[in-house]
Amino acid sequence: MKANTLPPKLRKYVGRMSKFVEGPDEVNKAMIRHWCEMVEDANPLYTDEKYAESSEYGGIVSPPAMQSTWVYPRWWPPATMPPDVGPAQLDLPLEDAPIPAVISLTEEYFLPIRPGDRIRYSTTLDSISTLKKTRLGAGHFITTTNRYFNQRNELVGTSQYVLFRYRLSANIEGLKPKG
Amino acid sequence: MSFNKLYWEDVTERDIIPSVSLELTRDRMVMIVCGTRDIFPLHHDMDFALASGYKAPAAPIAFLQGLVGRCLTDWTGPAGKIHKISLILNSPNYQGDMISVSGKVVKKFVDNGEHKLDCELAVTKQDNTVSATARATMTLPVKSKSRSRRAK
User: Fold this and answer.
1) Contact: A108, B69; criterion CB under 8 Å
2) Does domain A3-26+72-175 have CATH number 3.10.129?
3) Residue B93 in contact with residue B27, Cβ under 8 Å?
């Protein structure tokens, strides 16, 4: 791999940190319940008020993996929507490799997230590969780290994504819709 | 409702973490959007999925995070704390697939006074293909803190 073949227009993004994006809603029990319904998770710390109050947390907590859900953008109104989550915050010039595929994700959880918390995050571009050809198509491997903070400015957790941003290879190009 | 309470002392390396399964029905794909707020069209739009080189809508990684988390705390009970989860995706989890998560304990250790486990998990489909693997670090309660401190 020749690191020096990465075009300067991409190389200058490595190490860059995005602005902070604040989640549109405070952490709340309804959205926690929707997450638990999705995977049928009966952990009483997430949905059983009485149990959670008697636990060491003293109340309901969010499933740790919901940290990224708390900062998902609004669907409406469009004018107030941040462009996208994660790497899109970095405005990478990858218009020719529009499709993201997640290769791996590593999350760490440092502090409980509770109803009433306000979560915000920022993304750092850790690395970007030169153009690679894979089964999916040609594209770049991109590693980014999201850092999530609460309203007390405490780091509650991190997510490190490895993404492959690609365009379809020629043999399946025919499936592409017009436009 | 009663819940497990698994103590660190009662776990042995190579212990099995029992399987949990869910079918990715079309209704489930809708519940995933409700649960994650992820409306990227790959996860619900057949035309977009086909045009992106997939054979059907594919569940987002957040669904696997949720199912892996459930698999772990169904086993340990609510006193088990998840500190870290790494997921590596091998292949898409399509609408229509039956998804199962199970695992085993690979390491039992004490770190900074906390009683921890490292676990390895596999996400498998109805045809036994492994669509993802995961590694998780958890803390479990101990039966007697004073005794385990002395034992260190």
Assistant:
1) no
2) yes
3) no
